[in-house]
Design brief:
The chain is of the alpha/beta class. It has twelve helices and twelve strands. The chain has helices spanning about 30-35, 90-100, 110-125, 135-150, 185-190, 245-255, 260-270, 275-300, 300-305, 320-325, 345-350, 395-420; strands spanning about 105-110, 125-130, 150-155, 165-170, 195-200, 220, 235-240, 310, 335-340, 355-360, 370, 385. The strands form two sheets. A seven-stranded mixed beta sheet has the order 1-7-6-5-4-2-3. Strand 2 (about 125-130), helix 4 (about 135-150) and strand 3 (about 150-155) form a beta-alpha-beta unit. Helix 11 (about 345-350) crosses helix 12. It is globular, with a radius of gyration of 23 Å.
Length: about 425
Amino acid sequence: MADPSNGIVANGIDTHTTEPQPAPSLRKWSAATQAIHADDHLNRIEDVAPPVHVATTFRYHDDPDQLIPSTDLEASLSDRHIYSRHTAPTTTRLEALLTPLLLAPALTYSSGLSALHAAYVFLRPRRIAITAGYHGAHAVLKLHCRLTGATLLPLSCPAEDLHPGDVVHLETPLNPTGEALSIKHYAEKAHSRGAYMLVDSTFAPPGLQEPFQWGADIVMHSGTKYLGGHSDMLCGVLATRKEEWFKGLAEERAVLGSVMGGLEGWLGVRSLRTLEVRVKRQSENAEQLVKWLDALLRTKQEVLSEVVASVQHASLQSNDMDWLSEQMPNGFGPVFAISMQSERLARRLPSKLELFHHATSLGGVESLIEWRTMSDTTVDTRLLRVSVGVESWEDLRDDLMQGFRALWEEENRKGQEVKANGR
């Protein structure tokens, strides 16, 4: 069973002892500033942009007296790079940036699902309470249950069904609707029974949601999405304030081998520099679009009401704003869902749009729309998931409107043809 220690690591990131440590003054700066400067202490050369390190192995010290056998090093927190399956300069730099942004020591992985798998390998829960959400996470848990005999419980299960060491797995906001759940509520439920709280905060990156503030024990991100933000890298992240957990996860990562490559680590560093400005713009754009769509549906605007059935997003959870406005004070996330009046309309809408790429995934600077059944067999076939980018929201609005109108006109023509042929 994982150690329930609550110790906090002040600087759990592997760095060379020849390098200066982060300046204490850095802690006073905002997240936007730390995303630029939290890795300054790792600079070795004059280049302002850090280099890409692709080496897999690193020279030992030339001075025999400086050689430290592995038996004398803490495997998870060694102070020298030896082999890139353990640590490497570029991913170390990425973790140095992630740690202050996530408000806890962070480890990177080769993908979001590899990070989630690593969390469950380490925690080894017998019971996992979870609700609908990302189908990939459910696939990981299905594998975990097959290997360990663990069982899945509904997130709404009575607290008495949970036991010490179990996990409450909370994805918020939820994939694919962008609707949110209360972290505090489920953390209190988990902790009342000695269970742990795992939060998948992929849809609400740093700046939108701080899960540790509301009781999370461990936080997971698919860094492929908003942390990466450019649809060009795979990445997973785990963060925890429990010192023994962090050490154990780092040791097991070296065994699992699920580390990021040098190029992916470099892309992650590049991406975090602009995280705040990207996510702020994307979230604002999404809220504007959702507000516009909701208003048209409420007033039963002719074109929209005939092709669109509903829109879902955390910003529309008016009955939950007492806790939601505190949990997500800076915006409600850039992903929302549109449910069309029919499967046929959902299938056809993406082909009518010019600015939204029809593709899976989310979080990039470009807006995406996905007929979700293309990659997820569990959703309603009328559902479209929208990931909003950094374009002008007015342009995105106009593109959606012309797409809805094109569908509406097609349906009207089809109806007229049916009537004509029926005469």
